[in-house]
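Justification of computing resources. Each target in the renewal requires a structure prediction run like the one illustrated here; the chain below, 262 residues long, is used simply to show the kind of job we budget for.
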Amino acid sequence: MNDSPVLRLRGAAFTHPGGTGVSGLELDIAPGEAVALIGPNGAGKSTLLKGVLGLVPRTAGTIEFGARTPVGGAGAEHAANGMVGFLPQSADLDPDFPISVEQVVMQGRYRGLGLLRWPGRADRAAVRTALETVGLAELAKRPFGELSGGQRQRGLLARALASDPRLLLLDEPFNGLDQPNRDALVETLRTLKSRGVAVLVSTHDLDLARRVCDSVVLVNRTQLASGPVEAVLTLGNVQECFEGVEVEIDEHTLVVPGHEGH
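Resulting structure tokens:
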């Protein structure tokens, strides 16, 4: 497996036109590595993910996508096209719209199809593989709106996987999921890691970070700490990151009561 970072940030900052953002980002993500992005509400986690996608302007530092991409080029974020899959925090599909699960997942192939080409055998195979990966292959023909909330989330993850990304960005993917769907998503992430997909997941679930992630980045408008999970998820680091929110710690889990991260 190629150990060159899939994503590298050096001194990066991403800033909305209104002035809010996140800065001081130093990050390498290798193939098959999962990194948890943790911080309180408004810490800039979603901004970071959207910045990697080029949806929020980079205002400082450099970004590099694999060995193919020059560091810090003026349009470096465009290199994300075709190699980055994204699962947003809020669904962008009306559950009442008459579309099948299979058709939703095929949307992940449209970027590579262009305007004049219909989906072909390779596209259908990619959709089938994505559905199998998230455990929804038997529901491919089911109307998307008939799925449970957790199944819809897994269907949207399949859409992100259909483009065969090298890097997967997940924005609070476990919010609102029941335990069976949480467990299914954890197993999906482990499968993707074993295939060499790099994962950057924004979450406020610190136990989840321990279960599935190799490294953690703590952010609160700037990067506060990064490194292996056990080294970073200490009581002192988490208290600094969450600024006054009561933190409890035992030998297994860090808990931040009442926090609903975005």
